[in-house]
Design brief:
The chain has 291 residues and is an all-alpha fold. The protein is built from 12 helices and 2 strands; from the N terminus they run ααααααααααααββ. It has a two-stranded antiparallel sheet. The relative contact order is 0.17.
């Protein structure tokens, strides 16, 4: 898998979009969280997390611990997905419950600052694909035009920072350690208690927690890249940028193999294959690559 390349910004996205009214009316049919269903999903996931934590404590060697750590990373990723929805106040039926459970999951399970996640992720949603905003969280934030106009040293820095080797190694570590800086005092206390507990439980258990944290963060970055990086995406400068258009054309969903789709990334209204080429400029504004 190659790294993310700069994205082309072409195409008339307005002509094939449904009206806002039609979209909002359709979405409203499903935008009704059920706290009981959400609680059941969370209980199942936390139960599995507890079983794997017990397995990590009783692991007889590091070979077995590596297998357990791999399974823990998958459960951590699922927990983060639920946690993500809590940050949008869309998991449980009340904002207060989303916030309280989100703080608990972040501080005492994931070792993550919920308040920082909410601020940063909401900024991403409010400004995604806006070429005049700082979009460090996107894995291919520059357009081809921006890349070609940048000085050589900036292009080299871009291909390094947003290259796959860096994205799935250094970025997860940076993201993990950043939590100790950006969190509130209450969150810091919870995060320190979480890692102190892991140290107290012994080196094998600490190994499982540390490895699962890094692997889950790396997987999260890969999924994030697949969602936001595909050929012919929506990219606009601030004066032409539209919130509704970027929501409909600036992100994608992944059609699971064996389901109604073909196992490829698709934009919200039109199918595109996932772009996984390197962050190098290309003469063609839209080159289709295999997922």
């Amino acid at each position: 898998m190659d790294q993310a390349r700069p994205q082309a910004q072409n195409g008339d996205f307005k002509k094939d979009l449904p009206s806002k009214t039609a979209v909002y009316e359709h979405v409203q049919k499903y935008a009704k969280p059920c706290s009981w269903t959400a609680a059941w999903w969370l209980i199942q996931t936390m139960a599995l997390w507890g079983v794997l934590n017990a397995a990590a404590f009783f692991c007889p060697n590091y070979w077995m611990a590596t297998i357990v750590a791999g399974l823990m990373s998958l459960v951590r990723l699922r927990l983060f997905i639920l946690y993500h929805d809590m940050g949008h106040n869309s998991f449980f039926g009340t904002d207060k419950l989303n916030q309280r459970v989100g703080y608990f999951i972040g501080s005492f399970v994931l070792g993550h600052s919920f308040s920082y996640w909410v601020r940063g992720h909401n900024y991403h949603h409010k400004n995604a694909n806006n070429l005049d905003k700082k979009l460090f969280a996107q894995t291919a934030p520059w357009s081809i035009e921006q890349y070609q106009k940048a000085p050589r040293w900036q292009r080299m820095l871009y291909t390094t920072v947003y290259g796959w080797p860096f994205l799935i190694t250094a970025c997860p570590l940076y993201f993990i350690f950043l939590q100790f800086v950006v969190c509130t005092w209450a969150e810091l206390l919870g995060i320190l208690c979480t890692w102190s507990f892991a140290i107290w439980m012994g080196p094998v258990y600490l190994y499982c927690r540390a490895v699962s944290t890094v692997v889950a963060a790396s997987l999260g970055i890969i999924f994030f890249h697949v969602q936001h990086t595909f050929d012919n995406p929506y990219r606009r400068h601030n004066h032409n940028w539209d919130y509704f258009e970027t929501a409909m054309k600036g992100s994608s969903f992944f059609m699971v193999p064996g389901g109604s789709g073909t196992g490829r990334a698709a934009s919200s209204t039109t199918t595109y294959t996932t772009s996984t080429r390197a962050c190098r400029p290309t003469a063609s504004p839209s080159v289709t690559t295999s997922a």
